Amino acid sequence: GFSSISGIPGVRERTLIAVKPDGVQRHLVGQIMQRFELKGFQLVGLKMLQAPEELLSQHYQDLRRKPFYPSLLQYMTSGPIVVMVWEGHNVVRTSRIMVGDTNPAEAQAGTIRGDFSIHISRNVIHASDSVEGAKREIQLWFHGKELIDWTCCNHSSIYQV
Ligand code: IDP
Ligand code: MG
């Protein structure tokens, strides 16, 4: 039942994943989502939008003083993005491993950036880098009502219950 599932430490951890404009243009949304689905993580929020600059400036608040910041905002507003919330045990840390190094030249083959991108300025995907960061980013991009609490019928095949 629900209570035994919520009893597994960290099973309800959530992270923010976004397919950036280059990923959408290159029709990578399905392949990227499939990697998270096949891993066993659970989708709890999903939307496509043209990101407002104000939202992006909050999302990337820590990078405001970086030399690449203006071109980063230009890139991120160049077309629609797909923003998602994925849930599961250790999802923040595991997603970062699935996504790979920020610089695709350093990203391992088999990671999303390693397999689908070449240059740091067009690295197809965003993933939150900490549990605290994920909470902040999820609140920024989603209203509470847009996030769906649900339990996968395969739960006991993915976790020991
Ligand atoms: P992350 O996306 O792996 O967490 P961050 O350091 O948080 O990496 O940087 C956010 C995004 O800013 C990167 O994904 C990339 O799109 C862009 N970025 C970071 N460093 C550079 C750079 O040196 N040149 C151009 N773009 C960069
Ligand atoms: Mg980051």
UniProtKB/TrEMBL annotation:
Keyword Magnesium part of the UniProt annotation: yes
Residues the record lists as binding ATP: K20, F68, R96, T102, R113, N123
Topology of this chain in the membrane: Peripheral membrane protein
Subcellular location: Cell projection; Mitochondrion intermembrane space; Mitochondrion matrix
Catalytic activity field: a ribonucleoside 5'-diphosphate + ATP = a ribonucleoside 5'-triphosphate + ADP; a 2'-deoxyribonucleoside 5'-diphosphate + ATP = a 2'-deoxyribonucleoside 5'-triphosphate + ADP
Cellular compartments per GO CC: cell projection; mitochondrial intermembrane space; mitochondrial matrix
Entry superkingdom: Eukaryota
Known cofactor(s): Mg(2+)
One BP term from GO: nucleotide metabolic process
Active site: H126 (pros-phosphohistidine intermediate)
Span of domain Nucleoside diphosphate kinase-like: 12-149
Molecular-function annotations in GO: ATP binding; metal ion binding; nucleoside diphosphate kinase activity
E.C. designation(s): 2.7.4.6
Keywords (A to Z) from UniProt: ATP-binding, Cell projection, Kinase, Magnesium, Metal-binding, Nucleotide metabolism, Nucleotide-binding, Transferase
Family: Belongs to the NDK family.
Name the UniProt record assigns to this protein: Nucleoside diphosphate kinase
Residues of the full protein shown: 42 to 202 of 202
